[in-house]
Specification:
alpha/beta; five-stranded mixed sheet; two-stranded antiparallel sheet; 10 helices; globular
Length: about 240
């Protein structure tokens, strides 16, 4: 989701499988009573540490839209459910094209916007072990991947094909990148990132050993925009 700090004037856009929940938990500790922090998870499924996260100011009125400026399929009926049933104006994994109209042009244009990106091959393996976290029911990676990975993350922080954030943190150097960003924003003591949702992947599961030729080429194809823009390679450079 989005974490929005009015005091430090920043907007954080959460992408998939890039330690987004850990970042949300860290940012929440520096947010004030008037800032926006959506729930990181359902209360019934909260993991250790997440129960201390205090969601706030994420409910409110907004206008559902039939079309989106990035050309993606409309989620009109899901928006209606959020508005009428759940009253969620902000929620987890909201793309920039949804956050911008809900926060307003003045705040969107005036605040520092950032997100985080990760090597797509590594990210795919992380997503697999999280989705298939019960070993007794786990299906092979090459069977799971085509049904569950359809695109990269770049659409989360792009509008009309243009990246709209001011900075993209790198997962591979996350704590240092986050510290540097928050210091520039005036946070004197940047919080340490907790570890959330990382317990499902085996510690020795190097993504290069999990992939085969098919899965490596599949990720290269569906995540081509992310790979090209950030210069990621399968070797991790």
């Amino acid at each position: 989701m989005t974490v929005i700090s009015h005091h430090y004037r920043f907007i954080f856009l959460k992408t998939a499988k890039t330690a987004g929940t850990s970042i949300e938990m860290a940012l929440e500790t520096i947010c004030g009573a008037d800032d926006i922090c959506a729930p990181v998870t359902k209360k019934k499924s909260a993991r250790p540490g997440e129960e201390s996260y205090k969601a706030r100011n994420y409910k409110g009125f907004f206008l559902p839209r039939l079309t989106r400026p990035d050309g993606r399929e409309s989620r009109f009926f899901k928006d209606i459910k959020d508005l009428v049933v759940l009253q969620r104006k902000f929620k987890s994994h909201m793309p920039a094209c949804d956050v911008k109209p809900r926060i307003g042009k003045k705040i969107w244009d005036g605040y520092f916007k950032f997100t985080v990106e990760r090597n797509p091959w590594d990210k795919a393996v992380s997503a697999y072990y999280f989705a298939q976290r019960h070993p007794e029911n786990r299906i092979p990676f090459e069977d799971w991947l085509p049904e569950n990975l359809k695109q990269g993350n770049i659409h989360f922080y792009s509008i009309g094909g243009k990246i709209v954030v001011d900075h993209v943190l790198r997962f591979e150097n996350l704590q240092a990148d986050l510290d540097a960003t928050l210091l520039k924003l005036g946070v004197e003591n940047p919080p340490t990132l907790p570890r959330s949702k990382s317990e499902f992947r085996p510690k020795k599961a190097d993504y290069r050993e999990v992939h085969n030729d098919f899965t490596r080429d599949y990720v290269a194809r569906v995540c081509a925009p992310d790979i090209e823009y950030f210069g990621y390679t399968f070797e991790g450079k």
